Amino acid sequence: MTAFVIRDAVPGDAAALVELAQKIGAEPEGWLIADDAWRGVADERRYLKALRRHPHAGVFVAEEEGEIVGRLSVARDPHPASYHVADLGLMVAAGHRRRGVGRALLARAVAWARESRVRKLELHVFPHNAPAIALYEGFGFVKEGYRRAHYRRGAGYVDAILMAYWIDEP
Known about the structure:
The protein is α+β, with helices and mostly antiparallel strands. The protein has a single domain, classed as Aminopeptidase. It has 4 helices and 7 strands; from the N terminus they run E-H-H-E-E-E-H-E-H-E-E. It has a 7-stranded mixed β-sheet with strand order 1-2-3-4-5-7-6, with helices on both faces. Strand 4, helix 3 and strand 5 form a beta-alpha-beta unit.
């Protein structure tokens, strides 16, 4: 097993990140909210460049032998009443799941949260994504809610489970 490295994403990662999202989005299980489209490489590059000037968000990647095999995006809620909360999204390439990539990216998000004085990380996960739910619960996330028909996906709607991880308990 080859070791992977967790690092900050850079604009030069844009094409690989778009390819990762497209591959995961095309999986028949429907792991992502966007089932058939992801932003283009130029938009992804612009987004990653903009992050350099925005300390309240980040994108981290897991890289193995020069290949990006995972991505975690995190962004603080800008509202003053929920400024202590940040949302995250995670994706790991199919051939690299259950090897610690997701857990390592989550650990990086917790470190970012501590550096940023964020107290709570939140995410949404589809109820049918049992492997992701197991990962999140094993890491320490707890289910906080169920959102029926929360996302529009294709011609229909899908439910979402809201999960949270407290950096510092309230």
